[in-house]
What does this fold into?
Amino acid sequence: MNIVIYGTGGVGGYFGARLAQAGNNITFIARGKHLEAIQKNGLQLISPKGDYMVYPAHATANIAEVTDIDLILVCVKARQLETAAKEINQVLSEKTMVISLLNGVNNTEVLGAVINKKHLLGGLCKVVSKIEDFGIINHISFEPTIVFGELDNVKTERAFSLEKLFLNAGITTKLAENIQTEIWTKFLFISTISAIGALTRATLGEIISSPQLKEIMNQTAKEIVLVAKAKGISLPETIVEKQFQIMESQPYDTTSSLQRDVLEGKPSELEAQNGAVVKMGLELGIPTPTNSFIYYCLLPQEKKAGSPLTPKGGI
It folds into this structure.
């Protein structure tokens, strides 16, 4: 299959390398010195599930150079999604499928404002990985997983073909019964651990071991459940309990990409995570005091890093 990985960071780099390892024709979209390293030396994956070197690796900064695309996996940061949608829209053929693996719950709406929704499937991924150095991806922890489905949850032939594609690449795969429920479940998990990690400068293990911080996380998660229900999203009654079980099973030193970005002074996905909870809460009349406190405490740092403002209003 001809596949474009739009954004070759920790997520795109990992899944792109595994799909290449399975014999697919992969084009990596990257920028700057990371792109130069991939073009010169290939893309190196370091992983407890087995290292792999994609060499030679087809990589470019310009997706317009790529033709006959079957699948585009969108793996950029949320703040880059609108620009990505405009560029992707220029190269679509009738058969091209587009799946966002980003964190957040509004990715389909952003893509769908530019791209005809017939091309879109809903998706998310689960993996802890990062760019270790230019051209090098380090998979740190978590079983790498892709969850996806048609936006209307119908089991189509193309969905089954994608399921086979991912499984053949050794990727843990779930063809969702309800993709919106899956997306919100991941959103709850990542928004509960990420910003509090950035605020405390602590690992997930350190946070979980503190009864006070764990309770703050619990309140963060419960507010997200209330917002989801107000938006008509069906979530299990035990969702918070189950997500905490997953958190507690992670390595003690686990950190999120948002946390690492904040600590490195880079723009993060704060707006797409806790900022989105605050914004939706304001729109729906749902109080979100814990998410608001975390969000507004981190907002000055986010401004310094160059991210735009979004929600208006106070705690």
Q: What stands out?
A: The CA atoms of residues 181 and 234 lie 6 Å apart. The radius of gyration is 19 Å. The beta strands are 2-6, 25-29, 43-46, 52-54, 58-60, 71-74, 97-100, 120-133, 136-150, 172-175. The first strand starts at residue 2 and ends at 6.
